[in-house]
User: Fold this.
Amino acid sequence: MNSNKPSKLALSTLNCAVLAALFGWSVNTAAAEADIQEQEIEEVVAVGQRLKGSAGAVLQERQNQAFVADIMGADQISRTGDGDAASALRRVTGLTLVDGKFIYVRGLGERYSSTQLNSMYVPSPDPTRSVVPLDLFPSEIIESLSVQKSFSPDMPAHFGGGNVNIRTKSIPSDFLFKVQVGSSYNTSNSDSGYFYEGGDDDWMGRDDGTRALSNVFTTALTSDAGLEGNINSTLEERKKLIQSLDWNVGISKEDVDPAMSFSVAVGDRLESEIGTFGVLAAVSYDNEWEVVQEQSGSSLGSLGCENKCFAQYYDGTSTEQNVRWSGTLNLGYEFNSNHRFELTNIALHDMSDRVRNRNYYDANETEEGVTELRRVDISYEEREMFSSQLKGTHNFPELNNLFFDWYGGLSRANRNAPGGLDVVFQQNYNDGVFESEQLQDVAATNITREYQVLHDDVETFGWNMGLPFYGDGYELELKIGGDFSEKKRDASNVKFGITHRGISDEFTFGNNISDIFADANTSNDAFYTSATGSGIFDDGTTDGDKYSAAHKLDAYYFMADYFFENTWRITGGVRWEDFKQVSIGYQAHSNLFENTLEEIQDVVINEDTFFPSLAVTYIMDEEMQFRLNVSETTIRPDLRDVSTSFFVDPLTEFLVRGSPSLQSSELTNVDFRFEWYMATGNNLSVALFYKDIENPIEMVELAGVGGASPQLLTANAQSGKLSGIEVDFLTDFGFINKDWSSAFLSGNVTLSDSSVNLGINDSDNVDSLFETQLKEALEADTVSNIVTNNKRRLVGHSEWVANLQMGYDSDDGFHSTSVIYNVFGPRIIVPGTRGNEDAEEKSFHSLDLVYSYFPNFNSKVNFKVKNILGQEKQIEQEGLTLWGQETGTEFSLSYSYEF
Assistant:
């Protein structure tokens, strides 16, 4: 609705309610003390300004929404101490966090949600997904997070669980200067971590070129002979190639430094005769390390054991450095309060540098007390996003308050992952006594290097226009709009191995890769074997590792918002979308297509569909209202979901391939919610939801070959359903007595159930879409014995999720504290195959403490204890740990000054 329209709830009542609940003020007490002296009144106002933030606006927006939504303001994020959008969103009702990056809304996976930045599309730096990793957005730039759980015509129809809109901070109302510094320590870092040399600019989160693939090597890869061709038979060429690689990657154990961070923001608003100008500039930097113990297994079966066990199992230490920095520059201009322009520029950068040193058991290659294995891998990744957004808002009072807004944006996401390294060492024993360590001499390839690059560009433009009408006892707003976007992606992956056959045995001994490939060795002719055909390189780059993808969306919508008798609100409309998507794979080290033009055309997605939506709100009084939303939406295949080429999913490290016949999922969504906004500031909401999904997109595990990494297939199940109840509440303890009114309790609980029917062995004897896709992938005549459970819960769905927060604000305004608890129920990560049960992530209980001290009006000292319980994260299958990670407790301290 137009922001200039009268509010359905008086602002004075609402604001008093919010302040009463969040800051421990009593409305009755405030009224009784209205005659206190002026100095005391000014003191109370000062406290309110210090703590208030955006809570009042957030609560008002949620109540005035025509559609079911949950909104989290900057003050709430600050109160929980969460550092990015992903960790903050797990506090929202019905949301869970996976891998610290992706949000599952009501148990539906990340593909069932869409993310926007200031209501505009943004690119993704993830090479396997088009969804944006939400840990990329630091909390310093966020004004609020809106999660709309029911579809409205003015938002993307790619909608399942919800739409996440990250709204960044805008022009301040007055001069602003804020600086913050902080540091943190994790108990898991008490043990030394593993480090390697890296580059000189690692502290900035950028590689200085140390890890990059040399021109010499690139030329060899693209030559007619190829990496494994005649060039390997020339000794000098072998030397040249080996020495062009960065071998200063030997790991050593060192103490871990504490984390540090800082941020600065400055802004102002200038009034002039020609209008109001505003500016906001901010930068932030964070550098942290984490050392964790982790275990993982693969290829569940009976090889090497009496019952079931993993054919491969890892147990060791992971050390990861994360460097994040961000910058924003916002410019605004407002004329006559009816016309406003705003330019938002955002730069985000995130570097992750991980070293793992793990003992490695392989049923085929390990013999306890004789031969044991150790695996070292280094993974370096830079993710960044640049976005420029220009938008205008115009109101025309002389045209019956007609309003028109428009927006346009250019965004780019990049991912650079150079110099990935994977090395397997063999430890030799004699009668159980350690003798030596060397590069593994069983596997043909015991050293793997990998280099990945991705560029994702998005152009978006849109407009909205609305015309309100006011009559006796009713308000009507008609609204139309258009939404247009184009996305282009180019990605490449170069992978090759170095074989022990190409290196003389006497040079393979040692436990440090830098020593083995030292210049003194690689420049020695004796380092290289001279046998004919003993090439040192094994090119692991495959067709499809380099690919281009694009999609185009043109959308128009119409909706009407009708409010009458101060009791009923009916909002409905329809959205039309014309969607086109194509993904093209290239042959290895080539610009030639992997597939024929006919095969490419077969996997082009070309859809144009209407998506209806209806919302009805019944307003009982100023405090209570009921909502009913019904809509139809879609979930389309991701960029690589239709490709038959395997790629490594960075989330699971599994090999994943798509299905050329993959179809979009069609959803019917029903939401019903009761909301109660009490005069004291307490509130309660109870929601029921139901989703019927046709052709849900699911993952199924294919059989690994010879102990290879597990392989997953993206395929269409036959049908799916999701239903549940959500309860959200906020209450202070003033009902005990007024001395308790400064304490409050808030929380939410989601209870839900889901089911998916894959469609195997149906009685009609006709192959389902799932069976057809699985048969194509396995090149098999029957798949009836592949999948363990034809009917199960949706992947990633937790049957229950709970959040609880208890807070206290002192009456003098100097102290504020919160205890925050979060837990989710077990969820399927990998569906079981060949008689093995589903792999489930176990419940994780998170308990945090945040304390803030305000020595004066301008300063704030913040202390946080994160993950107090220190529970281990686990994924289990058949009672065995498929993946486990021991987590530590983090202590952080920060100081901020603002005026």
